[in-house]
Design brief:
The chain is mostly helical and 286 residues long. It has ten helices and no strands. This is CHAD domain-containing protein.
Length: 286
């Protein structure tokens, strides 16, 4: 019998290796490196939450807090990187428009400056004692995480199956609540659904070696829901940022017409993604 503890050690080792392998790429500012390290950090945090009952509470909570700190640093850089690329892509359709340089400076250049500043903060953290301690701790967890041996000795199939059912129920309860929430709170609830779908996805991926195709299929469906709602969230936040920059431009006496066109495009993009949400959610529970 494969025990839940052994299966969890295997899953954690894979995620830890992803995180540590991304570090030199981030230091070199390689393309997509911040994204990869952020994903690895988030994936590891998610697995710790889903399978936390197999771990000793205090060290698991401490590890989760340190990973949250690291994810926050990486997130500031990644969010600026995404916005810069998104704004640049939007502006490619308006290359001949008057005033493009000023709009590019406010939208794209500002975000690229923010990325560079945030990346510098990441590098400083990677050189600091706090990250070194985290890295050393993670290295130890590759083979010897703080398991609760009474629970870790149980069947991996039973324990992992229960985790997936619990995480699926969490997503389903949020989806049901979304149908009744008022419009003012809908965007945030959709964001919570996305986060829960992501947690389910990572729990499923951690369980693939234990449960097999059923976990893989469920994880794939959860990823689709996560992607749809993530794209919706990106469009909503981009729309809000453009409107904010439009107000700055207007206050400076600049023409805000192009900002309005870009904001309308992002509003339409958010609507398209939202229209895909009901069917994608229904598929997850099928």
């Amino acid at each position: 019998m494969v025990t839940a503890g052994n299966a969890l050690v295997d899953a954690l080792r894979e995620d830890i290796d992803r995180l540590l392998a991304a570090e030199p790429e981030v230091r070199a500012d390689a393309p997509d490196s911040v994204h990869q390290m952020r994903v690895a950090t988030r994936r590891l945090r998610s697995v710790l939450r889903s399978y936390g009952r197999l771990l000793t509470k205090k060290p698991a909570a401490a590890m989760g807090a340190e990973l949250k700190w690291l994810a926050g640093l990486l997130g500031a850089a990644r969010d600026a990187e995404v916005r810069a690329d998104r704004f640049a892509e939007l502006l490619t359709e308006h290359a001949e428009r008057a005033g493009l340089d000023a709009v590019t400076e406010r939208l794209v250049d500002t975000e690229r400056d923010r990325y560079r500043a945030a990346h510098d903060e990441v590098l400083a953290a990677l050189d600091g004692a706090r990250y070194r301690e985290l890295r050393d701790e993670l290295s130890g967890w590759r083979t010897d995480p703080p398991l609760r041996h009474s629970r870790a000795a149980a069947s991996a199939t039973d324990v992992f199956g229960e985790v997936l059912r619990r995480d699926l129920d969490r997503v389903q309860s949020l989806v049901r609540a979304e149908a009744t929430v008022d419009p003012l709170h809908r965007v945030e609830l959709l964001h919570d659904i996305r986060k829960s779908a992501k947690r389910l996805r990572y729990a499923c991926e951690a369980a693939e070696q234990v449960i097999g195709d059923e976990a893989a299929e469920r994880g794939s469906r959860a990823k689709k829901l996560q992607t749809v709602l993530g794209d919706h969230r990106d469009a909503v936040e981009s729309h809000e940022a453009i409107l904010h920059r439009a107000a700055e431009a207007a206050a400076a006496g600049e023409d805000a017409g192009l900002y309005e066109i870009l904001a309308a495009a992002e509003d339409a993009a958010a609507g398209r993604e939202l229209s895909r949400y009901p069917a994608t959610a229904a598929t997850l529970f099928g």
